[in-house]
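A.,

Following up on our hallway conversation. Structure tokens first:
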């Protein structure tokens, strides 16, 4: 999502990160800091088959864009 004012949005983004800090993990890739949502491991009877990718929700601000995805690999490609 293209941000109108990335610097102003970052203030709001940081407040959200602080509010949910116990559920987020700060990570860095390619010099870019992003946040990964900590998800509980599903019980074995609810686990996805090996042929399906487990979602890994992530979010980051890249320049003037807010990136939100359920794929950490996608975010790495965007960086």
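Then the amino acids I'd put at each of the 79 positions:
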């Amino acid at each position: 999502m293209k941000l109108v004012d990335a610097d102003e949005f970052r203030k709001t983004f940081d407040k959200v990160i602080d509010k949910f800090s116990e559920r987020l993990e700060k990570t860095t890739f390619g010099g870019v800091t992003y946040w990964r949502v900590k998800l509980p491991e599903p019980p074995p009877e609810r686990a996805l088959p090996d042929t399906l990718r487990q979602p890994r929700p992530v979010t980051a601000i890249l320049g003037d864009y807010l990136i939100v995805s359920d794929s950490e690999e996608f975010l790495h490609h965007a960086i």
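DSSP finds two helices and four strands in the chain. Curious whether your intuition agrees with the design.

B.
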